[in-house]
């Protein structure tokens, strides 16, 4: 987890592995918000390191939808304190669990734009 000081205060860098459908909704927001969760998705989970996001995008999203993307974004650090870090496997498998009903508020604490930093595609 990377922390940065900006003119708006301290931020934390998070990553999110995503497929093409979710990425299209992020793009439609002007790269400034995550879309609402579907009923079967009660949790929005950004991850705390790029390597973990790469593994999910490459190993899960590509087989499921043909493409996988790693996004990076900044969130106000003080706001993130409400979400404990969850270890979802090995020592570097770290995520935050944001309840779906809190995602709009989470989006209000994003600082800057969501950006795609890596992409993976199924081989033809």
Descriptive labels:
two-stranded antiparallel ribbon, 124 residues, alpha+beta, 4 helices
Mean of all residue-level pLDDT scores: 91
Please tally the helical runs, counting DSSP H or I stretches of 4 or more residues: 4
Order of helices and strands: EEHEHEHEEEHE
Give the helix level as a range of percent.
Answer: 25-40%
The major beta sheet can be summarized as:
4 strands, antiparallel
Q: Approximately what portion of the residues adopt beta-strand conformation?
A: 35-45%
What coarse outline follows from CA principal-axis ratios?
globular
Structure, explained:
A hairpin with a 6-residue loop joins strand 5 and strand 6 (94-96). The protein has 124 residues and is an alpha+beta fold. The model has no long low-confidence stretch (mean pLDDT 91). It has a four-stranded antiparallel beta sheet. A two-stranded antiparallel ribbon has the order 3-7. It has a two-stranded antiparallel ribbon with strand order 5-6. 26% of the residues are buried. It has helices spanning 20-28, 50-65, 77-80, 103-108, and strands at residues 2-6, 9-18, 43-44, 67-76, 85-87, 94-96, 98-99, 110-121. The protein is 28% helix and 38% strand. The protein has four helices and eight strands. It starts with a strand and ends with a strand.
């Amino acid at each position: 987890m990377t922390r940065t000081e900006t003119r708006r205060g301290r931020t934390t860098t998070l990553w999110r592995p995503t497929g093409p459908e979710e990425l299209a909704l992020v793009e439609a927001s002007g790269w400034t918000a995550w879309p609402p969760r579907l009923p079967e998705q009660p949790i929005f989970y950004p991850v705390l390191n790029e390597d973990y996001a790469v593994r999910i995008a490459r190993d899960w999203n590509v087989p499921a939808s043909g493409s996988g993307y790693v996004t990076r974004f900044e969130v106000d650090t003080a706001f993130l304190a409400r979400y404990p870090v969850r270890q979802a496997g090995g020592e570097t498998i770290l995520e935050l669990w944001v309840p779906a009903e809190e995602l709009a508020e989470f989006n209000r604490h994003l600082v800057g734009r969501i950006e795609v930093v890596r992409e993976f595609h199924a081989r033809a």
